[in-house]
Amino acid sequence: MKKGISQNNRSFWHKMQLYQVYYRRTGLYPFLIKHTIRVLIGIGLLVLVLLALNKYVINVDDAMQAFFSNFSDAAILSFFTLSEIVLGLVPPDLFIVWAGGKENPYSFLLLLAILSYGAGMFAYLIGTYIGKIHRIQKYIQHKFLAHFDMIRKWGGFVVIFAALFPLPFSPVCMTAGMVRYPFPLLALFGLTRFARYYIYAAALFNLF
Predict the structure, then answer these.
(1) Torsion-angle region of residue 63: left (phi > 0), alpha (psi -120 to 50) or beta?
(2) Nearest 5°: CA angle at 164, between 76 and 118?
(3) 50-83: burial string, b at 16+ Cβ within 10 Å, e else
């Protein structure tokens, strides 16, 4: 029994070592470091710009709430869902700020996270369908070639990175569907999308 456990442990660590070698050779770690630095710099610049606008130009929170007040909650949530499905056209951070102005902000934040996660899963299904249409697949593959390469090489790491950081989540999920990445793994790794919303909300709710 102990011998069997020992062999399993050796097999597990051997596989981990092989993965490490593969990820080093394919450039995963430089990719993660480079894009994490870019994301942190981008977030820092965004915060500085918003703080400057808030202090010297206009109250950003009041302006956004005044803008959103022209639309019903259902309309805003519907537009947000459509945006999340169609390649993330509008940064979700704007909707996080909108949720922060509600009487029950974390309920709306949870709803945003659920809709965003669901949009990613729906984008995956769209990808599986598009993958069967050669002409459309060729266009999408040309437009998002980098996403195809990343999904094929690094799989779950790219899904988690897209879920947590401003790497478009839906295009990554759609690409995953087109290359037939296992849906259960996508659904599991995609749950980190919820963490993204609560992490950003912790900063934005306090900022405004």
Answers:
(1) alpha
(2) 45
(3) beeebeeeeebbeebbeebeeeeeeebbeebbeb
- The token pair at 1 is 């029994």
User: What is the per-residue pLDDT across 10-36, written as a single tens digit (0 to 9) for each?
Assistant: 665 767 777 778 778 888 888 878 877
Closest CA to 86 of 26, 20, 169: 169
**pTM for the whole thing?**
0.78
Cα 187–chain centre separation: 12
Q: What number of residues does the chain have?
A: 208
pLDDT tens digits for 103-143?
Answer: 888 999 999 999 999 999 999 999 888 877 777 767 766 66
